[in-house]
Protein 1
Amino acid sequence: MRGSRSRPMSRSIVAIAAGVMCVAALSAAGSASAQSRLEVTLSGARWEGYDLGQRRATITGPQAPTGTPVTLFDSDVAILPGPGAELRLGWRVFRGVYAEATGGLGVNSIEARIHDDIEQAPALTVSSTLTQVTVEGGALVELATLRLSAGHLVPFVDGGGGYLRQVHENRVLIETGRTIYLGAGLKWRSSALHPRGVAQRLMARGDVRFISRTAGVDVDDARRHYLTVSGGVGIRLF
């Protein structure tokens, strides 16, 4: 069931990403000689949460011959927003086009609200820590540069996908999944044609990404979507 629902959406997202990047590549500006080959960025992030759906606890009733399900309680489950950190390595392959690898670490909470208890107990909310690790690869395309006296502002779009690992508190549960992402952001860097020294090689970067996730911690066989927002500093090398 998962494959039949997720594959068409995955293909659509990949097709959209490829189309956006092809169009953007035509407008990428700047000479190759003016850009360093390698960019390394470390960012703080906020990983948004998402609903995981509802789970109903039931038992089989005493009716003959087979009995009917009796609901003990219902629970609504969700992953809550939390802080994260992301390390990005970008290698320029052509003008403003980069091959990029990203490693991410997010610390979220998974929360369950238990209600409609058969014994009329009051609603109860329980939560625990969920550590999420991502390893992703993709492409980044820089758009037209805005040249200022204090430096250059460079908008960009990016897209890709990778591996997700989710570890429940005390390693009670470990799940793996896959991610696809589309994003956009802004870089600031020195206006120096050939940067020298650490100060001219420093850069700042902000990202917003739309993440589509399959597998992993869930109560249903469904694709989930969420946003990540990050900002940090980096350095241009080579």
Protein 2
Amino acid sequence: MNQSLRILIILLPIFILVFFTKILLVDEDLKLSSFEAKNFPAFELDDLNGRSVQSESLNGIKLLNVWASWCITCLVEHPFLTKLSKNNVEIIGLNYKDSKSKANSWLEKHGNPYLFSIYDPRGDLAFDLGVTGAPETYLLIDSKVVGHIQGEMNQQKWETIFMPLIQQATQKK
């Protein structure tokens, strides 16, 4: 009995260490980005300039970035989105649970990397997409959601998650 207790005392911490190491080393971005392609939900909303936007305007390869003026992490990722936009990546904003005046002021102050920003003050479209908060970024190819990132978009996520999906889609055409 004494020998069994000693073995248990030695093996239990090792088991706990291995278990928590496995949990902590899971790449959350890859876990969250792996899902099956789905159609973008049909919608009809205005953009921040009051122009009508419909789901048909999402053809081609585009990023849809969920953002808000109150979102601190959105400010952190904004320079990277601006860089992508300057490199001819088409980005559409989805302004999430915000006011038009605050959103437009934010874009005037920090720059606007978006082709346009869909105004979703109640979060209805965001809910249909499965948004859990801002920021989130979706990769759209011909109105299908083929990639998704929760949290800050950055160079590493762009290269490891979205670029392979874009390359795969362009090779099929």
Protein 3
Amino acid sequence: MEDVLKLTEKWDKTFPKSEKVDHRKVTFHNRYGITLAADLYAPKGAEGRLPAIAVCGPFGAVKEQASGLYAQEMAERGFLTIAFDPSFTGESGGTPRYVASPDINTEDFQAAVDFLSVQDNVDPERIGIIGICGWGGMALNAAAIDTRIKATVSSTMYDMTGSTPRVTLMLRTARRPDTRHARL
């Protein structure tokens, strides 16, 4: 059964609309059959095939907040971007509502890449993703298994891998000139 989404057409973001980009709502499906809602941002007057970026997060937020702002900013810099609501959240489909599934939400990033890769104005060899907060981990999962993703940004303060003490030690060591090349 396909989700019938009710998409808001008016500007409903928590940030001002840029006059440097065009904006429109789009939808696409993930491999679990869930319909995802997204805001597409394109640089005004851009021609040819553009590099593209899919943006999602923070955990518990919707595309009208931080991910939309990131996407709009990257569109101002020449990328075609989408900010999407993950499954079970915001304008996207899926039940029960307001839950997270690492498998499904990783697939949401891959579905966003699927969508971007078939757009006429996107260079499918130059697609990246940005995961904010809790979605940083989902972005890393997607990048690890999807070779179409050429660049990944994980903008997060929380490291679920347990490597934070090692990274902190590496940074502290690198700042000291006498131990710049120390091995950990």
Protein 4
Amino acid sequence: MYKALAYKEWIKIRWWAVGSLILELLFLIYIFTNLRAVIEYNSAEMIWSSVVYKSYMFFQSLKYVPFVIGIFISVAQYLPEVLDMKLKLTMHLPLEENRVLLFLNLFGTTILLLLFIPLVAVLVIGSSIVFPSEITYAMIISIIPWFLSGFLSYFFVSAIMIEPAWSRRLVIAIIGFFLINEFLVDVILGGFIKIIVVLIVFTLLYNYAHMLSGLRFKRGSK
């Protein structure tokens, strides 16, 4: 049963996932092309000074990419279900409602994880080639909240689409806006290091944000 459900979800998401990979590739090309130009036309001392004293982040243009990809996957997964009321049929499968919702959530989260891991890996490898380990570590700390915002955008957009009551949709949207904004604020390189654990915990807590919305969707709660 779960295998069939996973196949159904993959059919909906697959082209959005491919498009997200292409988007990541384009941004990586842009980032490292710019970095190469900076290295060629500036001295090592100037680049080091910019990184240390001006918090130069060669990966800055990647900031909103995970956030957008999270929305892509959420829309691809849940919009067809809501428009055609297929989600109610899915939740009437001979499986417990909570398990179905949890499976859908885990499937989308896994897709995001598989999309984000190669992106982070390329960034880390590229940074390690050019910069010392301290700079690469600071970069990792800086980008973790951006990727967490991708998971949060997936959770909140899913909850908004599934939620049957417009008043609750508005509340979820407002909470999501202000919370995600905290993950995308401009800080110095590595500036999130003191609160990174808190941000991860918040993301895990909101992992189940759309579970209640899903149950209300089945019951048609207004």
